[in-house]
Amino acid sequence: MVNAFDPASLAALAPEEQAAIERRIRLLGPAYRLFYQTPVQVSEGRGTRLFDRQGQEYLDAYNNVVSVGHAHPRVVEAVQRQMSTLCTHTRYIQDGILDFAEQILPTLGGTIGASGHIMFTCTGSEANDLATRIAMHKTGRRGIIVTREAYHGNSYLTAGYSPSLGTSSPLGTWVRRVNAPDSYRHDPAELGRRMAAEVTATAAELARQGDGLAAFIADSLFSSDGVYDNPAVLGPVAEAVRAAGGLFIADEVQSGFGRSGDKMWGFQRHGLDPDIVTMGKPMGNGYPVAAVALKHDVVAAFGRDTRYFNTFGGNGVAIAAAHATFDVLRDEGLQENARLRGEQIRSAIQQLASRFDKIGDVRGAGLYIGVEMVSDPEAKTPDADEATRIVNALRERRVLISATGPDANVLKIRPPLVFSEADVDWLLNDLEAVLASA
């Protein structure tokens, strides 16, 4: 587990922390995991800050769920107002869901933006699960291709193609993996061609084994694979997927909603017109709401042959949260803020890399940044121990980030989109101090 608390070290913690964790384990069981060697207790959040019981302030440079900031007043007010008015399912005609659909669909551009549809779920896992079912129904096949360390959900179906859940979480027999576009170790100009060729060969293998290719699904920032932002990769891959008879699913749960800075949706950085787009996490700024947007011809047969109903997906309160979040994103210029603050952070860390050779690579887009730590800069040897040290040393300074990648050696910096220049200064000053303390 990346950046997970080890219960075996419980005795090293203060008595109050031990008691809280023991109570948590007793009540919630062993599957729930905590972050950091010394877990963080939180009681309140505002903007980019979290606060514990003692009122100590933490800088949240990790949480993309509350993309417009913890407890944003416009989102809170919208949820409270709608909850006091009506909260019910989508089998009645309601203006809110239609108004939001009309607002969000055009931002996707391409065929979906012009004539597509949107279907609402509660979580990104549900959205990816539904997207996969639709792709399998449309193609009559069941093979799925993902990147080597991908994460797409924790339902039974999506866990079956989420290799980042670990070797004890089995992949479906109909699932195949291809390498992520590692721009640190390979020529960036060749990444799209390399990946497309691998997808073509993998699709042929699925066909020979009788499954065929239903879909290729990817997060366009390859978050769990180590954060790769090269925008020229997925165009050739989409061509290879369609040549094999499959659909291209753009998983925007991590990379959408303006996080990349230069585009509203991550797939737009690759010049794509996806068949299906999924979204979740930051969509309701903490309220569970997610969605599948897709071309009409992709869902037509599914809609004819089956039905879709989700008791809570698209309920009035969820839509109010999503609509308010989207309005804040637009009105406060948060996509542009992500671009500016992201450039500021990456530029500063690249300067630190000239002093600290354990920083092998700095990459990312907008406010999704990966910093790869290595033990040997010439051999580019992953250094998970150093990444773990930095993450936990920052936590002791009350700055929260995490780590990612197949070797757990990539610092993951993914703050709310309201991250300010003062927040950037706090993050960078403490990161420099932690690097210097090695």
Automatic annotation (TrEMBL):
The cofactor(s) it depends on are: pyridoxal 5'-phosphate
Please list the GO terms describing molecular function: pyridoxal phosphate binding; transaminase activity
Keywords, alphabetical: Aminotransferase, Pyridoxal phosphate, Transferase
Which Pfam family, just one, is annotated for this protein? Aminotran_3
> Which PANTHER family does the protein's record reference?
ALANINE--GLYOXYLATE AMINOTRANSFERASE 2-LIKE, PTHR45688
Q: Which family does it belong to?
A: Belongs to the class-III pyridoxal-phosphate-dependent aminotransferase family.
Q: What is this protein called?
A: Aminotransferase class III-fold pyridoxal phosphate-dependent enzyme
Q: What is the lineage of its organism?
A: Bacteria, Pseudomonadati, Pseudomonadota, Alphaproteobacteria, Rhodobacterales
